[in-house]
Amino acid sequence: MSVSGKKILIAVSGGIAAYKIHFLIRDFIKKGAEVQVVMTPDAEHFVTKLSLSTLSKKPVYTDFYNENGSWNSHVELGLWADAMVVAPCTANTLAKMTHGMCDNLVLATYMSAKCPVFIAPAMDLDMYDHPTTRQNLDLAEDFGHIIIPAESGELASGLIGQGRMAEPETISKTVEDFFDNQGQKNTLVGKTVLITAGPTYEAIDPVRFIGNHSSGKMGFSLAEEAAKRGARVILVSGPSAQIAHHKNIELHQVTSAKEMLDKVFEFYENTDVAIASAAVADYAPMEIAKEKIKKNDENLTIELVKNPDILKTMGEQKTHQFLVGFALETQNEEENAKGKLQKKNLDMIVLNSLRDAGAGFKNDTNKIRIFTKTERKEFELKSKDDVAKDILNFVEHQLLK
């Protein structure tokens, strides 16, 4: 594990999301990390020192002095850590961190830390969207801290929107990825990578559409990995619940194939590498009903017309771009993939077969084969994050030829 043997300092501030920290501690401990917890006094309203110390196997500190009068050295705590994770980070704690206020043990420890700092904000949606919060998050990033963005969903207030602390798995993975990538050469610095992801939805009427089961996971994994390697990433995604975390990713959300085509060609001319992983609908209704179609007849006939072939158009207009396509097949897989490679003027194609268990839509895993005009390489079933690494490693190898 990439955090095995690492010393993780978790700083908990006073928000309802503090209950999730139990899961984060347990995850780090399982992966071999050593965990020390410090808390603001207000955090004790939400979680107990006893539960956190039981999981971390260390005393939990909330004040500069213990009951027996001994000193909890914020300097030693700050210098001890390989990484500091502030989670949940409330608007109040964030503001104090970015403006040099130091009125509790957590803040004193933060100001003594020499290690990377990860911030997982959590607050109500209006607070998260407030200009001061946005400015403070930007300041924290300017300090070199790593922001783990809040997620959207139902909040403690009952409102629905962005402000929920990222899930413990997301926080843990962000820290792991950081240590995984330490010392990694930024192989895509200076490159612009354009990636399409997710499905497209083609409207039938105001409430219905034609779509597919693509989740966008593969495209978002590719975007995250390319961004970690230093690329500027343009991610054009159809409807997807996935979240782009890395600051190098510019996310552009679209719905239909025509919208995706238009957005892709806003950036294609200045792209170095283009990876078309989106599952674009081949057909769309000829006419979109202006009102909801009523269920009056036993049968309903919808006339479909071909959508623009985005990948083929990219191949036709290719000048200097390295163009990667995807093929999802159910029969004659290799033959069909190689045909697509040729017909669409691709430099490389990634083949998934729905006949391979664990591959295809919605899964967290994928099994791929990669083809160029002269090469073929097959990979084992892996997580989509690891598949993204394999694909980009292959792309980089081709660029060096």
How would you characterize this protein structure?
Helix content is 32%, strand content 22%. Strand 19 and strand 20 form a beta hairpin. It is built from 13 helices and 21 strands. It has helices at residues 21-30, 49-56, 74-80, 91-98, 105-112, 125-128, 131-142, 168-181, 217-228, 257-267, 310-316, 333-343, 384-399; strands at 7-12, 34-39, 83-89, 117-121, 146-147, 151-154, 160-164, 192-197, 202-203, 209-210, 232-237, 249-253, 273-276, 283-285, 304-306, 322-329, 348-353, 365-366, 369-371, 376-378, 382-383. It folds into two domains: 7-183, Flavin prenyltransferase-like (Rossmann fold), CATH 3.40.50; 192-400, 3-Layer(aba) Sandwich (Rossmann fold). The model has no long low-confidence stretch (mean pLDDT 91). Helix 1 runs parallel beside helix 8 (168-181), helix 3 packs across helix 5 (105-112) and helix 4 (91-98) crosses helix 7. By secondary structure, it is α/β, with parallel strands linked by helices. Catalyzes two sequential steps in the biosynthesis of coenzyme A. In the first step cysteine is conjugated to 4'-phosphopantothenate to form 4-phosphopantothenoylcysteine. In the second step the latter compound is decarboxylated to form 4'-phosphopantotheine.
